[in-house]
């Protein structure tokens, strides 16, 4: 869909829109992304029904836990970005979840072997030693993570050509998990088509998913945004590819 609205109007609307939490409903009708085939929220919901104590790291707005049909007796989530904390607390109140604001670096404010299950969707960084520490023997860590070079096409449309990605490779996660004393029992990868239909969707996405273009601002990247706007109008869409991997590891 090529919009008839102008560049400045679309950009101003996207700049003013809230980006708290980790939901993407603002993009409805303006951008789409294929979902990973494993159904992360469903996997988490099923696991939560089988444990007594669970922790969600980097919960965002608590969206994944809120879908759990049978939450455990103890359900805790952490969040480091201050605007997300009140959103997550409101979201998780209805399933009996507790949200703890934490710093961006360890340690986690929990005792050793406190949880049967630790989960995390799209963590900024996985502190494997801390995950292993707070898991009970036999407990599991289940995480959907961002893979290397995700939506690289969009990053390069704004920043120009980039070197090959060095971080977020699944094999690096496996090595780090095993070095922390965990056993990796599942690893799956997926490449997902991501489509943006207008420049406002691009701006909102870059404000929310901040690692796509580090330090992104509209004023600092206006020329590149205008070029991308012209491309979207000419071609009807801008296509990128997100990369995800699912990893499950157990404490020995």
TrEMBL record:
* Keyword vocabulary terms for this entry: Methyltransferase, Transferase
- GO biological process, any: methylation
Question: MF terms per GO, please?
Answer: S-adenosylmethionine-dependent methyltransferase activity
Question: Taking every annotated instance into account, which residue ranges of this chain make up the domain Methyltransferase type?
Answer: 55-141
SUPFAM superfamilies linked to this entry: S-adenosyl-L-methionine-dependent methyltransferases
- Which InterPro entries does the UniProt record give? 23S_rRNA_MeTrnsfrase_RlmA, Methyltransf_11, SAM-dependent_MTases_sf
Pfam families assigned to the protein according to its UniProt record, in alphabetical order: Methyltransf_11
Kindly give the PANTHER family that the UniProt entry links to this protein: METHYLTRANSFERASE, METHYLTRANSFERASE TYPE 11 DOMAIN-CONTAINING PROTEIN
Output this protein's name: Methyltransferase domain-containing protein
Q: What is the lineage of its organism?
A: Bacteria, Bacillati, Actinomycetota, Actinomycetes, Micromonosporales
